[in-house]
Amino acid sequence: MGRLDGKVLVLSAAAQGIGRAAALMAAKEGAKVIATDVNAEKLKELEGTPGIETRVLDVLNTDAVNAFVASLGKVDIVFNCAGFVADGTILDTDEKTWDFSFDLNVKSMYRMCRAFIPKMIEQGTGGSIINMSSVASSIKGAPSRSVYGATKAAVIGLTKSMAVDFVEHKIRFNCICPGTVDTPSLRERINALPNPEQAMQDFIGRQKLGRLATADEMAYLIVYLGSNESAFVTGQEFVIDGGWSL
């Protein structure tokens, strides 16, 4: 018996990193997984995986999101994983970067939740919506993460607001707040820096457990929040940061 037997999970940014790990782990736990991403080529790597269906989806496109959700049957779990890490202080952040960060990190969740909530209400069986935040948010200030921290703080606020508004429909909303996770995206950003080796050591150094998190460690939390084990949990931010925020 899998922990997600009989449940349908939809997630964004499933082609790599945390999203990919969550898709694979949820499928192993018995869920029917609908894995979406804007990167069609990377998404193809999941094709043929038992329990996983892939769909190309641009969460920046409201019409595409609405059409996608309308095409689905029953959905029990949604994991809004898509996001972008902008580097720099507020003085380094131009309006284009500010607007894009809020569009992808926050407004994409607005689009997805606004489309999925009525479906879950109509189903009458509740559901679990999980949003990707970060410990770099209202939880902790991080250097050179001005707009990123602002967007992730907004995710926490949005999550709590929706949890209050739809608790009577048994729809649960929670968000995860990772520290630094070893993903392809992180490696790409580190390798683009003048001294990648030192940058990696700096990232590791701020995690009090002395290492980066793995994508699978985030996926375990996603499975818990999507399962019946967390049936009494809503409106919470889950810090999973190796002690960085202590």
TrEMBL record:
Its EC number is 1.1.1.104, 1.1.1.30. InterPro entries: NAD(P)-bd_dom_sf, Sc_DH/Rdtase_CS, SDR_DHRS6-like, SDR_fam. Coiled coil: none annotated. GO terms for biological process: siderophore biosynthetic process. It comes from the Eukaryota. Pathway: Amino-acid metabolism; Siderophore biosynthesis. PROSITE patterns: ADH_SHORT (PS00061). Transmembrane segments: none annotated. Keywords: NAD, Oxidoreductase. One of its GO terms (cellular component) is cytoplasm. It catalyses: (R)-3-hydroxybutanoate + NAD(+) = acetoacetate + NADH + H(+). GO terms for molecular function: 3-hydroxybutyrate dehydrogenase activity; 4-oxoproline reductase activity. Gene3D superfamilies: NAD(P)-binding Rossmann-like Domain. Belongs to the short-chain dehydrogenases/reductases (SDR) family. This is Dehydrogenase/reductase SDR family member 6.
